[in-house]
């Protein structure tokens, strides 16, 4: 999809979780961002949203699910009492099971109380808990809210059989729990060794103790992307963190993130984020960053 004609937004601060409410306007233009967004619909006769070019009419207490990188908009909806939850894609990708759950539900954009009363009621309770914690301004509110976000995702996963007939399952199949744990070990190794000499798919398959072809197939089934792109995404995740350190040059950041050259760093960064590293640093890195 061409995202260039839509607005792009990012967190205004480094955060894994954010929550907001109390907006007076009933609409918001089509936009997209790298973080995910859930909306707990507020009261009123009209709550109309758009996600991925599909329109959804919700009732009070229903949920809208906009996954990372999906174009979405508020057409006409209560925003004064609606709760908007935003979460970092990097946080979701940091845990293997969260990525698995998110991938399974990526084609689901509306959770209606009328269709799934038990699940939606339980999710409402979780979100109300998030609200109490987030707006308390406690020193550990982000951590506690992230814990509840994980509970939210796990609660959805407990009800997955309700949705399996209606959405395309992205669950990996045909491999054992042993292989799953080996993949987790490999991805953890990569995250902590981005400057290692050999992070090729063949080397990682060997580390996992499985053939290269089998590794490639299972990896795509689990993550939703091929190994090469996933590795670039992890490198970009590290690079965006390092961009906040103003004393580091772009070349240093490229090398520390595992890119072989500044040209490949610039190319991949622009392909995935639609801007150059230097432009991203200017636009999105807070001026107070070190």
Description:
The chain has 290 residues and is an alpha+beta fold. The chain folds into two domains: 7-163, Jelly Rolls; 177-284, Arc Repressor Mutant, subunit A, CATH 1.10.10.60. The chain has twelve helices and ten strands. The protein has helices spanning 89-93, 96-104, 117-134, 141-158, 160-163, 177-192, 201-208, 212-223, 227-242, 250-256, 262-273, 277-284, and strands spanning 7-8, 17-20, 28-32, 36-40, 47-51, 54-57, 63-66, 72-77, 83-87, 110-111. The strands form two sheets. The protein has a five-stranded mixed β-sheet with strand order 1-3-8-5-6, with no helix packed on it. A five-stranded antiparallel β-sheet has the order 2-9-4-7-10. β5 and β6 (54-57) form a beta hairpin. The protein is globular and about 60 Å long. The chain starts with 6 loop residues before the first strand and ends in a 6-residue tail after the last helix.
Give a short overview.
The chain has 290 residues and is α+β, with helices and mostly antiparallel strands.
Which secondary structure elements does this structure contain, and how are they paired or packed?
Layout: E1 7-8, E2 17-20, E3 28-32, E4 36-40, E5 47-51, E6 54-57, E7 63-66, E8 72-77, E9 83-87, H1 89-93, H2 96-104, E10 110-111, H3 117-134, H4 141-158, H5 160-163, H6 177-192, H7 201-208, H8 212-223, H9 227-242, H10 250-256, H11 262-273, H12 277-284
Parallel strand pairs: 1-3
Antiparallel strand pairs: 2-9, 3-8, 4-7, 4-9, 5-6, 5-8, 7-10
């Amino acid at each position: 999809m061409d995202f260039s004609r839509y607005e792009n937004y990012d967190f205004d601060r480094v955060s894994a979780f954010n929550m907001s409410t109390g907006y007076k306007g009933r609409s918001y233009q089509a936009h997209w961002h790298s973080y995910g967004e859930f909306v707990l619909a507020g009261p009123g006769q009209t709550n109309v949203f758009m996600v991925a070019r599909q329109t959804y009419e919700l009732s009070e207490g229903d949920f809208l699910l906009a996954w990372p990188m999906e174009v979405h908009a508020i057409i006409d909806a209560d925003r004064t009492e609606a709760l908007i939850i935003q979460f970092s894609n990097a946080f979701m990708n940091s845990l293997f099971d969260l990525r698995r759950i998110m991938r399974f539900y990526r084609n689901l954009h509306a959770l209606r109380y009328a269709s799934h009363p038990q699940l939606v009621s339980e999710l409402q309770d979780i979100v109300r808990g998030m609200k109490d914690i987030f707006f308390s301004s406690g020193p550990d509110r982000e951590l506690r809210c992230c814990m509840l976000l994980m509970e939210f995702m796990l609660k959805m996963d407990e009800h997955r059989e309700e949705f399996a007939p209606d959405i395309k399952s992205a669950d990996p199949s045909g491999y054992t729990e042993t292989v799953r744990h080996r993949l987790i070990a490999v991805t953890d190794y990569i995250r902590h060794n981005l400057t290692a000499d050999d992070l090729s798919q063949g080397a990682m398959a060997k580390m996992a103790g499985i053939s290269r072809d089998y590794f490639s197939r299972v990896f795509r089934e689990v993550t939703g992307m091929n190994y090469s792109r996933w590795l670039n995404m992890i490198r970009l995740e590290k690079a965006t963190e390092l961009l906040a350190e103003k004393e580091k040059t772009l070349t240093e950041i490229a090398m520390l993130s595992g890119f072989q050259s500044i040209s490949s760093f610039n190319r991949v960064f622009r392909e995935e984020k639609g801007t150059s590293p230097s432009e991203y640093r200017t636009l999105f890195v807070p001026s107070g960053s070190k």
